[in-house]
Specification:
The structure holds three protein chains of three kinds. Chain B is α/β, with parallel strands linked by helices. Chain B is built from nine helices and twelve strands. In chain B, α4 packs across α5. The chains are: A alpha/beta, B alpha/beta, C mainly alpha.
């Protein structure tokens, strides 16, 4: 071999080598997520170790608050057809999933009180529950060797982590990263501006869940480590209730306590009914008329389309955005909530604009124009 | 003289530490084969004395000897084999048959975890025969007439095979017919050599079947000894505070008030 | 009489066989693969079914068995010692005390299972003692009435106690729901829990079984019992403590399950006789059958769980009404015995 030949060969080989190297390095540079290797052992938010033998084909989502897990799960479009049984997903405002997925009505529906045996009857290879349901529903199932994934979703960090775990289990890690980046894109602008706020600039905010049972109605505050608290903080507010509920569930407060807090801004949500049905009645009552926040016109109904935005459902990010421009209109005057809603549904679900206008936006008309 | 089965020596008893004494310096004894009655007006302390003889209550001082040994040295089971009680009123609280109820009397012969066996059943049947209730063995014990009930109680006490049969007012609640049944039974037992101790406020009953009598007034013994000596009009008038007379004919004695 | 004894023994044996059949059926009943009874051959073919039966149903059925026989035996013991056919552990503050003791210990320091049982037993005994002492201090009504009234008061105090502990002192939600405590349920029973109550239940059960004839004597008034050679107070204490310990242990894993201790002894006495010799073992077996059936219904009838206490109360109350209103089968129904 003389030098001239070597050079020729090298010149011919060079593009191939380049391509090969680029091909090998491309994943590193593009940030594309790797494929999952099965069998997979992974730790969930409860620090339970789950072992998945292969891609799940029969998935059951069950237990109380199924809608939260379901809405997160249904972000993974290819995984939707694997659901064989699902708990209650209609909170009272409509069933979003049947609009989203044509086959949804064919999936077996489970009651929210379902017992483990009924779930086993569907022969699942993956069961997804909310973390507080693990002890009662998840543990018996995992004793039978069925993998049980518990989802927490109660903060941005938890949400991100749980989405990534879902992505890994379903072998859709790139989709998971896509979702995470969509959230980051919406969350980071909020944090950038609100992180640098002084305490003085943060309005005192009270978030209330208005619950009605028969003739009894009550106002409830969320626990300090739930997403509602996070939403208020990241939107640049100071939640007034955090010291009062270190527990694990909604806590009823009476009007005196609300008056004692005397918050600057009050947001009220009901998970089961649209704001029209309760909001006017509340703020027009004598008691509420005397509150500082009411007099200042700073009592708002939390928006809800198919679901209230004030829960760990996927729409929590919209709730945070909405809250931010309510609390700091001058900081966030670039946020147009109607646009944010459109882009959210289009980015997340690929729903065409016409459907968003027809199905989603009408439900938000009142609350987005407060 | 027959051996003394039970001896009570100089006992005092009061309900509470500084209350008035119910029984004062009381002594009595029971000989084998005798029928002893404790007579006295209401409130005299008859029941308390009976309870003490049974070992159910403990006197403040004095001694009680059972078969010449301190009563305190006996275990409960041993006491149960020495003395049995026919209570004044006892409700049968569950639906036991007569036979089942009788078998309860075998308790002193069974340890805590033992159950009645064929021998115990045989003894129970014997007792039933003696009191004349054989035909009622499967009847619910709570469905007996007053007289049958009392006979059942006596039968259970007999099942205990005691040395002393103790009865608390055995005929107070019975009509004359049933009273006679009980009296007849007791007389039969006496003929078979059973030692009996009973309380009553019916002097005629005492005179009818007792061999010995003890008159108790306000916690003290007024008279004690063989029945013919103790049960006189004078003594009884003193005891009850009204004029009493005793009429003795051949084998029948009647005591009545002569007011 | 001996033939009567043998006859009753044979009937007890039949009951025992019935219990075995009930347990076997319960293990094969559930909502997998569809609501109803599966055939045993499915167990051979389907490993999931096998695991389900062994790990999910079996510990639960065992717990139901222990719960049923324990509560029924305790009910019988209480009824006889208090000479009152209308009491059960739940009426005298025992069940509620046990629930309170268990709840307090869970919230205080999330302890080992046996500590929870001890705490439950101690509070149950306190409940019993207070009921008894209160009843003695009441000034009106007969003994039966006083005891029940005192028991109602003490039960209410302890029930509220559980509520307070749950709502005030349980921020971390370590306690199961109130419905669990007040209505009972075996849905969370696993092997660990079932095993943990075995010692107490077996020891207590054997003790109570040994004293089954002696119980008759302990229902009599003190003086008569004494004259029969008993030390009534001591023996009653022993049996009450054993019965309470067994009740408390089962309540600590199942919550309060009512009516079993009341109704089953009645049924047992009706079927056999008032003699504790047969009534107590019968009570234990019938109680076990009853609770196993109720628990199987609780987890099979709907796709969710019906609280066990709801079913035992419903069926128990109905049975109670039937028993109370039905006249005695035949007056003077002799059992035609022969002397041994």
């Amino acid at each position: 071999m003389n030098v001239k030949n070597t050079l020729h060969i090298s010149i011919r080989l060079f593009p191939m080598v380049l391509l090969l190297t680029a091909g090998l390095l491309f994943p590193l540079f593009s940030g594309a997520a790797p494929a999952t290797h099965y069998p997979l052992t992974i730790e969930d938010s409860l620090e339970n170790e789950i072992t998945i033998d292969k891609v799940p084909e029969r998935v059951v989502l069950a237990g109380k608050a199924t809608l939260i897990s379901a809405n997160a799960y249904y972000l993974f479009e290819e995984a939707r057809e694997k659901v064989v049984a699902i708990g209650k997903t209609n909170q009272g405002l409509g069933n979003f999933l049947s609009h989203l997925d044509n086959d949804f009505d064919k999936v077996t529906k489970l009651s929210s009180e379902v017992g483990p045996e009924q779930i086993v009857a569907h022969r699942p290879d993956l069961v997804i529950v909310r973390d507080f349901m693990y002890k009662r529903l998840g543990a018996p199932l995992s004793k039978l060797g069925i993998p049980v994934l518990s989802l927490n979703l109660e903060s941005a960090a938890a949400f991100t982590k749980d989405i990534r775990i879902l992505g890994k289990i379903l072998n859709q890690q790139d989709r998971a990263e896509e979702i995470v980046s969509i959230y980051d894109e919406r969350l980071n602008p909020l944090k950038e501006k609100t992180d640098s706020l002084s305490e003085y600039d943060k309005p005192r905010v009270l978030m209330l869940y208005y619950s009605v049972r028969g003739n009894d109605s009550a106002f409830n505050i969320p626990p300090q480590d739930w997403i509602q608290t996070y939403q208020v903080k990241v939107a640049g507010g100071a939640p007034v209730w955090t010291d009062s509920n270190i527990g694990n569930g909604w806590k009823t407060v009476n009007f005196e306590q609300i008056a004692a807090w005397d918050p600057d801004t009050i947001v009220i949500t009901s998970f089961h009914s649209a704001p029209e049905s309760f909001f006017e009645n509340i703020i027009s009552s004598d008691k509420w008329q005397k509150l500082g926040a009411t007099k200042q016109g700073r009592v708002f109904a939390f928006p809800s389309d198919f679901y209230s935005w004030a829960q760990p459902d996927v729409r929590w990010i919209l709730g945070a955005q909405w809250l931010a421009q309510i609390l700091h209109p001058e900081l966030f005057d670039n946020i147009d909530m109607a646009e944010e809603v459109r882009s959210f549904y289009s980015d997340m679900y690929n729903i065409p604009d016409s459907d968003i206008s027809a199905l989603v936006l009408p439900r938000l008309e009142k609350t987005l124009n407060q | 003289m027959a051996p003394k089965l039970l001896e009570v020596e100089h006992i005092n008893y009061r309900y509470r530490p500084h209350a008035d004494p119910v029984l004062q310096d009381l002594s009595m004894s029971i000989e084998k084969g005798t029928v002893n009655t404790i007579l006295g007006p209401n409130g005299a302390g008859k029941s308390t004395l009976l309870d003490i003889c049974l070992g159910w209550k403990e006197p403040e001082n004095g001694r009680i000897l059972l078969n010449q040994q301190e009563m305190r040295s006996y275990s409960r089971r041993q006491m149960g084999r020495w003395m049995s009680l026919v209570p004044q009123d006892e409700q049968v609280r569950f639906d036991y048959t007569v036979l089942e109820y009788l078998l309860l009397g075998r308790a002193p012969y069974l340890s805590q975890l033992e159950m009645p066996g064929p021998e115990d059943v045989r003894i129970a049947h014997q007792a039933l025969e003696r009191v004349g209730l054989e035909h009622l063995q499967e009847r619910p014990a709570s469905k007996l007439s007053g007289g049958e009930h009392q006979l059942l109680m006596i039968a259970r006490a007999l099942v205990q095979e005691p040395h002393i049969l103790v009865l608390d007012e055995p005929t107070s609640r019975l009509d004359p017919g049933n009273r006679q049944r009980v009296v007849t039974l007791l007389k039969t037992l006496v003929r078979h050599g059973v030692t009996i101790l009973f309380t009553t406020h019916d002097p005629t009953l005492a005179a009818d079947i007792s061999t010995h009598a003890l008159l108790l007034k306000e916690g003290r013994v007024t008279y004690a000894g063989p029945e013919e000596e103790v049960l006189t009009g004078k003594n009884l008038s003193e005891l009850y505070g009204i004029s009493m007379e005793v009429l003795r004919r051949k084998n029948k004695t009647i005591v009545f008030s002569a007011e | 009489m001996q033939s009567n004894v043998q006859r009753q023994r044979r009937r007890l044996l039949l009951l025992l066989l019935l219990l075995g059949a009930t347990v076997a059926t319960a293990l094969l009943t559930g909502r997998y693969p569809s609501p109803g009874v599966i055939s045993p051959s499915l167990l051979a073919e389907d490993p999931l079914a096998r695991t389900l039966v062994l790990n999910l149903r079996l510990p639960r059925v065992i717990a139901a068995l222990l719960l049923g026989s324990g509560l029924a035996a305790a009910g019988m013991v209480f009824q006889m010692i208090f000479a009152n056919p209308l009491v059960e552990p739940g009426f005298l503050g025992v069940s509620q005390g046990a629930a309170f003791g268990a709840a307090v210990s869970i919230v205080a320091f999330a302890p080992a299972l046996w500590i929870i049982q001890v705490s439950a037993a101690v509070c149950a005994l306190i409940g019993l003692a207070v009921s008894y002492i209160l009843a003695r201090h009441f000034h009106f009504g007969g003994w039966v009435l006083r005891l029940i009234l005192a028991g109602i008061a003490v039960s209410a105090l302890f029930s509220s106690g559980v509520g307070i502990v749950k709502f005030v002192a349980d921020p971390m939600s370590e306690l199961p729901e109130i419905t669990f405590w007040m209505l009972g349920g075996l849905w969370s029973v696993d092997w660990q829990q079932a095993r943990s109550i075995l010692p107490v239940c077996i020891v207590g059960g054997i003790l109570l079984f040994g004293y089954r004839w002696r119980l008759n004597l302990l229902s009599m008034d003190d003086r008569t019992a004494f004259s029969l050679g008993l030390a009534p107070f001591r023996e009653r204490m022993l049996l009450l403590v054993a019965a309470t310990a067994v009740t408390a242990a089962t309540i600590s894993i199942s919550g309060i399950v009512s009516w079993v201790g009341l109704i089953v002894p009645h049924i047992a006495r009706r079927m056999f006789s008032s003699d504790g010799r047969f009534a107590l073992p019968a009570s234990m077996i019938i109680g076990a059958i009853y609770v196993v059936i109720c628990d199987t219904l609780a987890r099979t009838v709907l796709d969710g769980e019906i609280p066990l206490g709801v079913l035992t109360s419903l069926i128990g109350a109905a049975l109670f009404l039937v028993l109370l209103t039905k006249r005695r089968i035949k007056k003077g129904k002799y059992r035609g015995t022969q002397v041994a």
